[in-house]
Amino acid sequence: MSDSVKFLLDEEHLPTHWYNINADLPEPMAPVLHPGTKEPVTPDDLAPIFPRAVIEQEMSTEREVEIPQPVRDVYRQWRPAPMFRARRLEQALQTPARIYYKYEGVSPAGSHKPNTAIAQAFYNKAEGVKRITTETGAGQWGSSLALAGTFFGLEIVVFMVRVSFDGKPYRRAYMETLGAQCIASPSDQTESGRAILAGHPDSTGSLGIAISEAVEMAVQRDDTRYALGSVLNHVLLHQTVTGLESLEQLAMADDYPDLVIGCTGGGSNFAGLAFPFLREKWQRGLDTEFIAVEPSACPTLTKGAFAYDYGDTAHLTPLVKMYTLGSGFVPPGFHAGGLRYHGMAPQISHLAKQGHLAPRSYNQLECFAAGIQFAKAEGILPAPEANHAVKATIHEAGKCRESGESKAILFNLCGHGHFDMQAYIDYNAGKLEDLVYDDAEVAMALAGLPSGC
User: Which of 14, 34, 155, 218 is spaced 20 to 30 A from 389 at the CA atom?
Assistant: First the structure.
């Protein structure tokens, strides 16, 4: 086994294809339904929202999808991304576990999100789109699409969830510096936003609300399309470059993971790391375990219902079968803003329902404590979202210390926390508290699940 700390691949090892897990699912997923007819959607139904190439990827069952050369050319700036052996963390934890982390914070935007932002911007540009609207929670996705917009000459409009718009000014400044328009959501610029503000003028917002605003604006102009940074199949597809590279890097380490861990909000960074390893497990009969970690304040996988639901609050989007807290649920304003989505990616929901992964939730304070423990050992301060994966990794490493087992643990350090320093300032000052989701509000939101599906 290698005694190296870092495992680097040169550009020749940049993946040429994304991996589509739909080709290998042991059981097929439920179809996506039209919100009006409740019949399976067609490509024409999605045409006002997405470019044709993206729609084809969303519905594809091909195992491999070629990465266009212009996308690979941009990827080359930071990909293949490094993998590290967390040897100092292992020593600090006094664990026999072998801890590896794939570090996606080396992208220009500081997270894994450009993996799909670059691809979606390319496909929109190729089909003559001039403007893209989107939503963002913590700002990682909005920052990444703003970056992609500069590379491909596209106008970008970002509806940023109000609690993050107010609490993360540096993310907002990054987007605006790159030329994107950043709007606090709910806003007065859309019918759906105005409807929310009429009833809740002090609303902290939600990803569901921001999605409604972005979709509403997108369908008003022929030169505009909508893009999103998580949840749907094509987004998770684009993220698999992370896991494909990790397979090669672990081979360099002469090791293989017993545990694969990632945080989950909409599901993109967990899927990007885990899906290629799930393929290996199914094809080779391996015993690898998969842990999807979410915040206790928005426990979609651990406490949600597996049902058809809308992806947005105004019910403008198609119906997908997923774990959901209800499209009307507005989570409390905790700092991991990218993990505040009411639903979970249909592919991850399907895999969780079938028992192929284990969901887990943690509170905000214990995740920040884990992130700081990691930073003191490894020198990288994680984004608040990534702290959830760090917490689960430290927990599993502790179990190895107690049992004496030397398991290999791989987790996705999906972004750095340099734009999130206010959260750490508040944590260090004792201003943060654990926020609990409202049972009554969830019950009310779930009562509004669509019928007849």
Answer: 14
Backbone φ and ψ of 38, nearest 5°: 65, 20
pTM of the model: 0.95
Q: How far apart are CA 327 and CA 330, in angstroms?
A: 8
- Scan for tokens 């979709």, then name that residue: 215
- Indicate which CATH number applies to the domain containing 363: 3.40.50.1100
pLDDT of residue 208: 86
Distance CA 32, CA 272 (A): 21
Q: Is 416 helix (H, G, I), strand (E, B) or coil?
A: strand
Tell me which H or E stretch contains 141: helix 140-152
SS3 (DSSP) at 253: coil
DSSP 8-state assignment for residue 129: -
Domain count of the chain?
1
Output b/e per residue, 215-242; b: 16+ Cβ within 10 A. bbbbeeeeebbbbbbbbbbbbbbbbbbb
- Containing domain of residue 364, as a range? 6-13+68-110+234-447
Task: Tell me whether strands 305-310 and 319-324 are parallel, antiparallel or unpaired.
Answer: antiparallel
Tell me what the mean pLDDT of segment 76-102 comes to.
Answer: 98
Examine residue 60 and state whether it is found in any structural domain, yes or no.
Answer: no
Whether the bond into 28 is cis, omega within 30 of 0: no
- Residue 401 included in any domain: yes
- 33-43: pLDDT as tens digits: 998 899 999 99
Q: Which residue has the tokens 């597996």?
A: 306
